[in-house]
Amino acid sequence: MTNDERMKRAYGVSARAVRESLKASRPDDDRVLEAVRPSEVVAVRGSYDHCEQVLEATRVPFVPVTPAEAAGIDWERLEVLLVSCPGHLPQAALDRIGPWVRAGGYLLTTDWALKHVVEPLFPGTVRHNGRQTGDCVVRVESAAAADDPLLAGFLESDRDPLWWLEGSSYPIEVLDPARVRVLVSSREVEESWGASPVVVTFEEGQGTVLHLLSHLYLQRSDVRGARDARPASVYFAESGLCADTVACLAAASGDLVLSEVRSAHTKSRLLTNAILAQKRRVSSRKGGTV
Fold it and tell me: Model pTM greater than 0.90?
């Protein structure tokens, strides 16, 4: 298989593991994802990142749009907007995004969208630090409280998460530490490119912005040692899922290795956590519970 074929399979089995884990440990959350309507989640396609492929793998209903179509989104129904790198959007779309976020929307952006979407719409929060990363995989660490719901099932101390950096990714400089929360950081990124944040978030009005260094959909992952090279089945065997589910995931993994499914699992879980966080907030505003 090519690298792209391998990662597509890795996302498929990892996303299935995420959903099976939710069914087992947080069934109410799984039901929330099942009830998502396509109009509530929109993914703006990018030429470098492909958030829509992660949504497809996790079986979350959504509407894909091109950047040219973004201004015509059903903003009244929209709850979560994903903007894939590079984030080159027409001004008409940018003019809608800012007010929509402040009114309660959840915006998730990746890589170069930092400069093209987040910086112009939310000045004084975060920005590109002016450097560009290499093409490599780095280890990441939690920079938030252990019980932060956005990191639930995402960073596990004994499973050593990896994060792939696309060549020329934009390191994140935090301008307002009192306002911006760094959820995930990397000492390796700081040592090489001068800024440690990998995942950052901040509130804007009633809404939220979540930005990721590099991409949500990985095109490959690296083997960084003997542990990474073990079969993917080992990862699922350590996941706490039931034996039948582990066997099915192992069979579907084929010859994938642990580092590939671990990288895909990290991104898939973060995405589902973000969507669940927004669904809880929307439900709370309406006087319901999720």
Answer: yes
